Amino acid sequence: MDRKFLGVPLVVWGTLCIVLTIVWSIFWPHQKAATTTGLRFVILRWFHALVWLLLAIAAFLAAIDGLGGPALARTVAFLSLIAYLVFLVTLNTTS
How far apart are CA 3 and CA 56, in angstroms? Predict the structure, then answer.
């Protein structure tokens, strides 16, 4: 079965999310992280890319039968929302 979102196959969405994972692994808010260390630095450095990686995984899981399918895909997508909220809060509270 060729599952789609907004008329586009989920495999295409997953591939786009992988590309964005690579982009956000290269381009990140290094100016904000210049004075941070520890967990705050890790969140600012990697969580935006993690969001897109989790969305890619969710798209691929939803596209195939087995491995939990859409139910597991929803859980992974929800984890990406949590990672994004953590990233946004950290970004906005870092001076």
Answer: 14
